[in-house]
Design brief:
The chain is built from 15 helices and 15 strands. It is α/β, with parallel strands linked by helices.
Length: about 425
């Protein structure tokens, strides 16, 4: 007997699956796949210039030597660590804690480090833990990383925006927004932000602003969720401002770390430093322990082989990701300078085209005198062979409708120049015509 195949009504699925935050990522990936020859300023991927499959074998061997020489494992212990499920909180937590102390001046108990499947899982777990009731909300700077809005919507956690100005966010503005949210009957739990070369805006916060934000967090009793994937990638040498976590003396900051940009994304390893004390029923614990309980029901554990690979890379460089990324830092500096100089040559005197030069990172936001839609992205790919990301995917502000984000991290100078020529042709074509 032939049976009719089931068809699920989208209305009977979770509403977040049709949310623009999720749809936008699918659209951009699909467009990039359809036009592989286009010059793509869309993805914030690390450079592939230094990827070598032979390194993976060496990293694994380095980690195995660490297990035997430094931790005293026998052959059975090594096999168990690499082949079994492993500890939910991770097996390279001590190496990550060592890296944080060396590179960032963050001193933390390794038990406060939860190793996750990318920083996205760490973010999701923190948001899951903080949503305790229907009044709970999270704040985020606007524009913000689409991964934050997407994760929050999957959890039915409302996101309340704090608008950025031309130079980033003002702490007093954060305080005012927190109080507005409270006055509306909601409970703000945390503020999510990327203090160094933010995705997508490229803004960075001064040391003074960071200290003021910590004061606001303490006085208003909220957490700060600090996401730091780009902090090492400054255009100029010199001292870097301290992370919020390095300045944090009151455990107000949950630090979200990604090894995708500083090691390689294929490993899918991230982490959270969640050293906040949790009290109440069940006895005292660290927030990292509570997050691990949730992780055990989500991904069980982070693959030990992936952890071993990034652990070996850390060990080879004395625990320093800054040292491990010296060559990559040079590439990102070169590329960002090339992009900014190319924009200056082509658009310096073009009406309605503006941008702010970031001090580092992967991204530059361009204002243009016409709407930037998904339809325009497809037109750009078809007619001009160039791709970019509409800023409307990161913000609901009216201004974002006429902005696009350019990423230069995975291109070389020749491709950047070629892509800017193609982009200039598109902008010239649309900028010359009147738009609403």
């Amino acid at each position: 007997m032939t049976r009719t195949a089931v068809a699920l009504d989208r209305a009977d699925l979770h509403a977040s699956l049709a949310d623009p935050a999720l749809v936008s990522m699918t659209f951009l990936n699909e467009i990039a796949g359809r036009f592989p020859e286009a010059v793509s300023f869309a993805p914030g991927r690390p450079t592939e210039d230094f990827f070598d499959p032979s390194d993976l074998h060496r990293y694994l061997d380095t980690y195995i030597r660490h297990l035997t020489a430094d931790k005293g494992y026998d052959a059975a212990g090594v096999r168990r660590e690499l082949f079994q499920y492993g500890r939910t909180k991770g097996v390279v937590h001590e190496l990550i804690a060592r890296h944080l102390e060396r590179d960032e001046g963050i001193v933390c108990d390794p038990e406060a480090v939860l190793v996750t499947v990318g920083a996205q899982e760490a973010l999701w777990l923190v948001l899951r833990a903080l949503k305790a009731g229907p009044r709970d909300v999270v704040l985020a700077l606007d524009p913000t990383y689409v991964g934050l809005t997407g994760a929050a919507r999957l959890l039915d956690l409302p996101v309340r925006s704090v608008s950025e100005g031309p130079r980033g966010v003002r702490p007093e503005q954060v305080r005012e927004r927190i109080r507005e949210v409270r006055a509306a009957g909601e409970r703000p739990r945390a503020l999510y932000l990327v203090p160094d070369f933010s995705n997508p805006s490229g803004h960075s916060l001064s040391t003074g602003t960071r200290r003021e934000l910590l004061e606001v967090a303490e006085q208003e009793d909220v957490l700060l969720l600090e996401d730091n994937p780009y902090g090492y990638f400054r255009v100029e040498d010199g001292s870097r401002p301290p992370t919020l976590k390095a300045l944090d003396t009151g455990q107000r900051v949950v630090y979200l770390g990604s090894l995708s940009k500083t090691c390689f994304p294929g490993a899918r390893v991230g982490f959270a430093v969640a050293d906040q004390r949790v009290t109440g029923a069940g006895g005292p614990a660290l927030l990292a322990d509570e997050l691990a309980r949730a992780k055990s029901m989500l991904t069980v554990n982070t693959p030990p082989v992936a952890q071993a690979l990034v652990g070996g890379m850390l060990l080879e460089h004395g625990g320093s990701l800054l040292e491990a990324n010296r060559r990559q830092i040079g590439v990102y500096r070169r590329n960002l300078r090339c992009l900014l100089q190319g924009l200056q040559r082509r658009f310096d005197r073009m009406p309605g085209v503006r941008w702010i030069a970031p001090e580092g990172g992967f991204f530059v936001v361009l204002d243009v005198p016409f709407p930037v839609t998904d339809a325009l992205v497809e037109e750009a790919a078809v007619r001009h062979g160039v791709l970019f990301t509409p800023m409307r995917h990161f913000s609901d502000q009216d201004r974002a409708g006429r902005q696009l984000r350019l990423s230069c991290s995975s291109l070389d100078p020749a491709r950047i120049e070629d892509g800017l020529d193609r982009l200039a042709a598109l902008i010239d074509e649309h900028g010359a015509a009147p738009h609403g």
